[in-house]
Predict the 3D structure of the following.
Amino acid sequence: MVKFLKSGKVVICLQGRMAGKKGVIVKTFDDGTDGRRYGHAIVAGIARAPLKVKKGMSEKKVEKRSRVKPFLKLVNFNHLMPTRYSVDSDFKPLGITPEMCTGDGPKRTEARKGIKKMFQERYASGKHKWFFSKLRF
């Protein structure tokens, strides 16, 4: 079978608290791991998309409305819907591991901050506009 769920692929989460949110696959585990014996992936996505900005808004308001709130999750392949889009971002420098995705701790917080910085830069540069828009359905 062809493996189309690869790193950088844009997906939509179908189950859980982040259902209906867009994300990017950071790393895949096709055969599973010891703790999770099914195919799953680390997904970094957008929990809250930036809001619309108009010309008459103040600089402070524009900056506040342009913020991106990220999430980081381990998600079963069955709960992901792949899209035709892919993002050419490199998550390797962040060093995201499955341990960072489970539980609350300083490593998870640091990983989320790195993802937020990366997403903010992408949004500010104007790349991948579809990825940063709210999903309407």
Remarks:
- The radius of gyration is 15 Å.
